[in-house]
Amino acid sequence: MSQRLSPCPSSPNCVSTYAQDEGHAIAPFAYRKSRVEAKEALKAVINSLPRVTLVEEDESYLHYEFTSLLLRFVDDVEFLFDEETKTIHFRSSSRMGYGDFGVNRRRMEELRGLTAGKL
Fold this sequence. Notes:
By secondary structure, the chain is an alpha+beta fold. It has one domain: TATA-Binding Protein (2-Layer Sandwich). Helix content is 22%, strand content 30%. The protein has helices at residues 35-47, 103-115, and strands spanning 14-16, 29-30, 52-58, 61-67, 74-82, 87-94. The chain starts with 13 loop residues before the first strand and ends with a helix. The mean pLDDT is 94.
């Protein structure tokens, strides 16, 4: 994997599968299908969600912007597919502010549930 996700800042408004500390660490998603099929399945689930924009995509990377309903805060959500381990690493981070009241972690756990059995 040539690409890597940026580390989380010290603020508690980010989760990442690469983080080591309890406040930021979260388990990656596993996939059983081919990377292409898993990526398309993940995209289909994400595209069904409101206020989401695909910013960048390549064969093993996705970058989305999620915009909150009321205050229009933008969160960056990135996914990195590791074909060797059949793992989807990700990072979800608020662009502004300090705390996020657990929004990024809840979003990623919700996505884990929505993609269960589809990847």
